[in-house]
Amino acid sequence: MSDIGAVVTQTRYGFKTLVRTPRVLVFSVLFPVVLLVFFNSIFTSGQNATVEFHGHKVDTATYFTAGIIAYAVMTSAFSTLAVAIVARRERGELKRLRGTPVSPWTFMVAQVLRTVATVAAMVVALLLIGSLAFGVHIPGETAAGFVIYLVLGTATMCTLGIGLTAITPTEEVASTVAPFAAVILSFVSGVFIPINTLPNWLQQVGQIFPLYHLADGLQNTLFHVTSGIGLQASNITNLLVWGAAGLIVAVRRFKWEPQGPGHS
Amino acid sequence: MAEAAIAVRGLRKSYGKHEAVRGIDFEVQRGEVFGFLGPNGAGKTTTIEILEGYRDRTGGDVSVLGVDPGRPTRAWRNRVGFVLQESEPDPTLTVRETLTLYASFYTSPRSVDEIIELVGLKDKADARMGTLSGGQKRRADVGIGIVGDPELIFLDEPTTGFDPSARRGAWNMIQGLKQLGKTIFLTTHYMDEAQHLADRVVILRQGQIVAQGEPDELGGGMGSASEVRFRVPEGVTIEQLQKIVREKLDASGGEVSFRTDNAQKALFELTGWAERQHVQLADLEVQRPTLEDIFLQLTQEQPES
Predict the structure, then answer these.
(1) Which of B96, B104, B144 to mutate: most A Cβ within 10 Å?
(2) Domain ranges in chain B with CATH number 3.30.70.980
(3) CA Rg, chain A, in Å?
(4) Per-residue b/e over B61-94, b at no fewer than 16 CB within 10 Å?
(5) What is the pLDDT of residues A241-261, one digit of tens each?
């Protein structure tokens, strides 16, 4: 079996597993939709219908849609992916795969493809609900920028998720650390609370991390407040740097053997 | 003479200052069932993982099917199958799906239906892996390990947790594999299993081999001794018995036993005396030492360091 064939087969079986684990689908796709409806209902009554964004007044519903997409990318590509990999590793599945003739990296690609499909489903669901219920739409000129941010953001979050598995020895640790990090970050990244409501020093802390830049980039493309297709050097650079860091950790420190208690 | 399936010379492995494997030599011939035994901490797991290509060695030469497992190739992985000790496949896939998935990784796998039949999971073929009992999972593990039709199979504690009938089934399966010409490298804690299945065994202790050979002939001097045991008859003391039997008597829990190189003579004297005294030697047994006896003696001579 060629490596490409192995990727295809593993991805196919990965989808079977995904469909049979409704919890993951609900969390990754349904939950962000619920969040969107929830936040928009709370925050768009009367005075809060607009939000300040880099000096412009922009529509709150669209602001939240972009923010929640960013947050959901992080939960799928960072948290869920990390936990899924750690779970398989601790079960001994990765060790067993390494003993077979296919290259181990095919497993990783299959996991990433599964994540990409989940993210795509989530984005479609959010944009659909967003446009039907709240009038959210992507301006034609910045559609390319939106997609670029989505792809880059997913890639960065995936490498960080894979990198995270190198330092989380058990499924329990991974499923605590990853969502915790995601939630904490979300408060300083302008996904639930417009970032200009935070004190300056906290805004600066948030701007170190990639979630802020993904959200900001997506928000920029949806609001079309900058020229061109909506890309900003600062956002792109930050995502690339974090992606590279995740990749380096992942490549150098990835563990195929179980790491939990009882293992050397 | 055909090339050995596995050849190990002077194998060493150290973890920092601790020497887990201290220079061992052995060979496994093609088509044989080879038992690799030893107490926990003897270096068994380390050695197997080196043979399987999961761990680097510190020194020595290793050749598995003509290839150094420290530099495994794809072609080599096609020829070697593993049944790992602790490995759980995806619980949401069915047995059939899991086997089909793994079969797809190999160039000439066996048919999935054949494997399902071989491991005795026909009734559970479409059950999800997560619903199987411990013994059934293990059988599925074995199926995954052999679906690629390997020439050499590493079986790491294959019947741990099996009930007696499942163990018999597994033994039959392993013998079936041997009849297909497979070479099997077996580790087990069950001495009766090694005695029953293995053509040759090696006993490892503290990183060194302390015995090597056919299960029935191990132990050198011990191999020829028999053990006689019986219940102490009423009204008879150990001292009285010791006068009749030349060998030293071991008494515990109302039972008495002794080892002898000449069971026939010892029994003749013992039973002759019993008949004359009208004394009943209840539960009288004569046994050749089992692999377990040899194993225990070889691995417990000195306190663990």
Answers:
(1) B104
(2) 225-288
(3) 19
(4) ebbbbebebeebeeebbbbbbbbbbebbbbbbbb
(5) 999 999 999 989 898 888 887
User: Residue A212 in 3-state DSSP?
Assistant: helix
Is residue B259 pLDDT above 90, yes or no?
no
Q: What is the pTM of this model?
A: 0.82
Q: Least CA distance to B154: which residue of chain A?
A: A99
Q: What is the mean pLDDT of residues B259-275?
A: 86
Q: H or E element: which one contains A59?
A: strand A56-59
B281 contacts B249 by C-beta, under 8 angstroms: no
Q: How far is A97 from chain B (nearest CA, A)?
A: 9
CATH class of the domain defined by B225-288: alpha beta
Reply yes or no on whether the pLDDT at B285 is more than 50: yes
Structure tokens at B128: 């999800």
CB contact under 8 A, A99 and B54: yes
What three-state secondary structure class fits A227? coil
Higher pLDDT, B179 or B301: B179
A10 touches chain B (CB under 8 A): yes
Q: Which part of chain B has CATH 3.40.50.300?
A: 6-220
Is it true that domain B6-220 has CATH number 3.40.50.300? yes
**How does pLDDT run across A218-242, given as a tens digit for each residue?**
988 888 777 777 788 888 999 999 9
Secondary structure class of B203 (helix, strand, coil): strand
Q: Does B7 touch chain A (CB under 8 A)?
A: no
Strand partners, B34: B185, B200
